[in-house]
Write a structure and sequence with these properties.
Mean pLDDT: 86
Largest sheet: 6 strands, mixed
Strand order of the largest sheet: 17-16-15-18-19-20
Shape: globular
Helix content: 40-55%
Structural class: alpha+beta
CATH architecture of the domain at 641-803: 3-Layer(aba) Sandwich
Low-confidence stretches: 167-173, 207-211, 413-418, 457-466, 915-943
Strand content: 15-25%
Oligomer: single chain
Distance between the termini: 4 Å
CATH topology of the domain at 641-803: Rossmann fold
Length: 943
């Protein structure tokens, strides 16, 4: 500890943490400063200035002492300790000004006071250690008992004081009384920690005869008894103080915590070997477990101010001090080992041995998390951005374990006590495995159903905050529009204005929700919402981020004004406006870019966009590279009419538990093939967690018998894989999908396959083959799990249009009057750098083509998602990956920008937290963890 008297530690333990603190707080201040009242801004400025002044004084003092060749003394320890205690006290006294209620919690993921308290801990700890080392010379006898007595006299004195009538001690105002008692408490706390730490330090210095047995008992108490007792109390083994799967200070229920505590105690209490090689092994082992000691030291740092109160009220509060005492014991053992081994090994070898040992636990945890990341992301890629040409084989058992960890780590609470997370490790897991995001309950359930064959969600599934249903009193009052024909881009630019009103004068905080059905070739180019007397233009943002911010604002219950416009389907957008209070009329509007005039219907009201009297047949319009084309209804009628030949494509259920049905499934298929024969040869796919298409002409019955029955019935993957193959390879034949299963409700299906409608121009029907041989029709466009009331003919001849001609068809289009956006499956549309020369409408055509390309090639989604989103930003044309969001103030916009960058840096399949009442993980939490671990390492080096 005496090495901490060197002035260099001021830079490492004061200057650098203060700079980190100022950087983190400045980042938060830049987001919320527009919401802060002048008094709060003044508090922020004065505290910031005070920290700068104190850090500058400490740095200059350290440099001066180093220049003089002198060590730090009592003056620095006392001065720094008192000065920073005053700063902490002032900060907590003005907590309501630092983060007033006007600032929503979701804008401040990590409270500034937590930053302040955590990052000033190295300075406070260093100052106290300097003071202890300076007043405790090693060459003079010291009394351990006296220091212990003085330490525990503090809670006794406080117990006496709280028994006295408050009126006899009060003086002045309530505010004065509270601050006086706060100062007295902090003074008592510092005295308690000072004498307790000094006693532990003196024990470490003892060399008197006969102290060995007492020293061993002390080490057993501190390294074994107190940690195991603390774990038992925290985890409820000695009385349930929290809910199941929660701990008072964190979730430490894993057997590893108990095992490491016992192993750590064994290594610390073993007699020191006289053989250098064995002593070196002991040193490495103790170094390896030093990470365990550092972890709990960091975890309990924020709780040390509560130690005195806990001792008085609970009686077991001294367990909160165990990590501090264990740190002192562990540091002393490592220092003793190091000094003894210096006679045999160089300092470089010993330093390397310590670092190698210390890195064992962090590297093991990191390696485990990286493996879980690889397993999880591989599964996410398979489900949400698969490469249909690749063969996947995932470790279902490892994925199941990873999902269990995700469930545990995503359970976040705002409570200071009682949490099911593992402190700091949960943050590290979320940062390394989940990119600071999470997996929604729905996606976790889907992954478990796909790979584990689980039919029902776990009872653990939490229902996140659900926004209130739109009130029936909020209705569209008036729908109006203005349209202008842009001759340069040969397209219409229309503004649709919606006036919505709440007919209930006593109702507040209601939300208006509606859907706008758009024709093909119509893009959203802008959005606005009237807020008060001003018109707020929408911000085009990443879709998940915009939806999350909208939900956060609505959940504030402060009646802030957001408006959200996002895609609800391939040709439909959802509009939300909040709030629409009683007697209030809100106006919002959407800009649409469209090639042809059309009639828009919203909530039963109609408006004509464009001039239908001037409408004329529109020729097909293609992008410069002819990757994608817009074909109007009139132009489609001029295309050749062809009739393709159908063939059966059977999707056979080989999921877990279906082995006994294989013979029955074969008989059903053979019956269908005998009764009704399609023109083409049938095809087959085996479907469980994976979809395995069988080669043409293969013995499907033999393959069915040999297929392992495992996992869930992932019918979504099988249908998509089949439709994508049909769309990527236009042919004069097309598949008629027939699902062979006896448990369709257990099949994993989406809400629709509307994004792949270009792959089934003849009909959106697929069929389920029942045990009695009947074929029930289902729709690919809407609710595929529900059978249709009218059963369309199985092999009805249906004519379609060939694009661009029948001989070299790139696509087949349904024979209807509707326009189509047609993608050339052999050419990927280039992302526009800005708006193309032909105008914004054609830029939108390129973006729609890129969207269709990603639908057919989901394996490129992860790589091209961010460039696609940024292309949408540049052109201000909304896509399914983006959304328009109108916000009330600059703080909301700054928070949106920060969260958006976080989402864009993460895996596309990850989610923002669906439980919007919780505080999201903040990127600064990792810095807090590193700061605490760094403190432990520095203390070790300074011992």
């Amino acid at each position: 500890m005496r090495k901490l008297l060197h002035p260099k530690w001021i830079i490492l333990l004061n200057t650098l943490p203060t700079l980190a603190l100022l950087a983190l707080c400045l980042a938060q201040f830049n987001i919320i400063h527009t919401l802060l009242p002048p008094a709060s801004v003044l508090v922020w400025q004065r505290l910031g200035l005070g920290l700068v002044v104190l850090a500058a004084l400490a740095l200059n003092y350290g440099l001066w002492q180093r220049r003089r060749g002198e060590l730090l003394g009592v003056g620095y320890g006392m001065g720094a300790l008192l000065a920073y205690v005053v700063v902490v006290f002032i900060a907590f006294s003005y907590a309501d000004d630092i983060q007033p209620r006007v600032v929503p919690d979701w804008m401040v993921p990590t409270p500034p006071l937590l930053y302040l308290f955590t990052l000033l801990m190295p300075t406070l700890a260093h100052a106290m250690f300097v003071l202890i080392a300076a007043v405790t010379p090693e060459d003079q006898p010291q009394s351990t008992g006296l220091n212990f007595s003085l330490a525990f006299a503090v809670p006794v004195l406080w117990f006496v004081l709280i028994q006295l009538p408050t009126s006899s001690l009060a003086a002045g105002s309530e505010s004065f009384w509270g601050r006086l008692w706060g100062l007295l408490y902090m003074g008592g706390l510092l005295s308690f920690l000072f004498f307790l730490t000094r006693a532990a330090y003196i024990i470490g210095m003892r060399r008197e005869a006969g102290w060995g047995e007492l020293g061993l008992l002390w080490k057993i108490l501190v390294s074994l008894v107190l940690p195991l007792l603390g774990l038992a109390v925290n985890n409820g083994h000695l009385g349930r103080l929290t809910h199941d799967e929660q701990g008072i200070f964190g979730n430490f229920t894993s057997p590893w915590f108990y095992a490491l505590a016992a192993l750590n105690a064994l290594l610390l209490c073993l007699p020191n070997s006289a053989r250098p090689s064995w002593r070196l092994a002991q040193f490495v082992g103790r170094s390896a477990l030093f990470g365990y000691t550092c972890y709990f030291f960091v975890v309990f740092l924020p709780f040390l101010p509560l130690a005195v109160v806990a001792i008085i009220l609970i009686g077991l509060g001294f367990l909160m001090l165990a990590p501090l005492l264990l740190m002192m014991v562990h540091l002393r053992e490592l220092t003793t080992d190091y000094d003894a081994l210096r006679a045999y090994y160089s300092a470089r070898v010993l330093t390397g041995a310590f670092l190698a040992g210390w890195a064992v636990l962090p590297l093991y945890v990191t390696a485990a998390y990286l493996h879980e990341r690889a397993t999880l992301h591989r599964a996410l890629d398979y489900v949400y951005s698969p490469d249909y040409a690749e063969t996947y084989h995932l470790d279902a058992e490892a994925l199941g374990q990873t999902l269990q960890v995700v469930k545990q780590h995503k359970e976040r609470r705002n409570d200071f006590f009682a949490t099911s997370q593992v402190p700091y490790l949960s943050t590290y897991f979320n940062w390394l495995v989940l990119d600071n995001l999470t997996l929604s309950d729905a996606k976790i359930t889907t992954l478990e159903r796909v790979f584990l064959g689980r039919m029902q969600p776990d009872p653990w599934v939490r229902r996140g905050w659900t926004p209130p249903l739109p009130s029936t009193a909020v209705q569209l009052q008036r729908l109006s529009s203005t349209s202008t024909f842009d001759a340069r881009q040969q397209a219409w630019v229309s503004w649709v204005n919606l006036d919505v009103a709440n007919r209930n004068p006593s109702q507040r905080g209601t939300e208006y929700v509606t859907t706008l059905a758009l024709p093909p070739g119509c893009w959203v180019g802008d959005y606005y919402l009237n807020i008060g007397r001003r018109r707020e233009q929408g911000i085009l943002a990443e879709q998940k981020t915009a939806a999350w911010v909208f939900a956060q604002i609505v959940n504030e219950n402060s009646y802030r004004d957001p408006g959200l416009l996002t895609y609800a389907g391939p040709n439909a957008v959802s509009l939300k406006v909040y709030p629409v209070n009683g007697g209030e009329v809100r106006r919002t509007g959407v800009q649409l870019l469209h090639k042809e005039p059309f009639v828009l219907t919203v909530d039963g009201q109609r408006t004509v966009l464009g001039d239908t009297t001037q409408a004329r047949p529109t020729a097909p319009v293609a992008t410069p590279g002819r990757e994608v084309a817009y074909v109007s209804g009139a132009a489609k009628k001029s295309l050749p009419l062809v009739q393709r030949k159908p063939y059966y494509h059977f999707l056979l259920d080989v999921s877990a538990g279906k082995a006994a049905q294989k013979a029955d499934f074969k008989q059903r298929v053979l019956t269908v093939l005998q009764q009704t024969s399609a023109v083409g040869s049938p095809r087959f796919s085996l479907v469980n967690s994976y979809a395995t298409p069988l080669p043409a002409g293969a013995d499907w019955q033999q393959q069915l018998d040999a297929a392992p029955n495992q996992g869930g019935f992932y019918l979504d993957r099988a249908i998509r894989q089949t439709l994508v193959a049909a769309r990527q390879n236009p042919a004069p034949t097309y598949p008629v999908l027939v699902v062979v299963t006896d448990t369709l409700p257990q099949a994993i299906l989406p809400t629709d396959f509307a994004d792949l409608s270009s792959a089934y121009p003849e009909s959106d029907a697929f069929y389920v083959l029942a045990a009695d041989g009947s074929l029930a029709a289902h729709s690919l466009r809407h609710e595929p799990g529900i059978s249709l009331s009218d059963n369309p003919p199985l092999l009805a001849p249906t004519a379609v249009r060939a694009w661009p001609n029948a001989r070299q068809a790139q696509a087949y289009l349904p024979d209807t009057d509707a326009a189509e956006v047609v993608l050339n499956p052999g050419r990927q549309p280039a992302l526009p750098v800005g708006n193309v020369a032909a105008g914004r409408w054609q830029t939108g055509l390129l973006l729609r083509g890129q969207e269709q390309w990603q639908t057919l090639h989901p394996e490129v989604t992860e790589a091209e998602r961010v460039p696609f989103i940024r292309a949408s930003f540049r052109s201000r044309i909304m896509t399914p990956f983006t959304a328009y969001l109108a916000l009330e103030n600059d703080a909301q916009k700054a928070a949106l920008s920060r969260k958006q960058e976080q989402v864009l840096d993460a895996n596309a399949a990850l989610d923002l937290d669906e439980k919007t009442t919780e505080v999201p993980i903040d990127e600064g939490a990792l810095l807090l963890l590193l700061a605490g671990v760094g403190l432990g390492l520095l203390l070790k080096r300074g011992s």
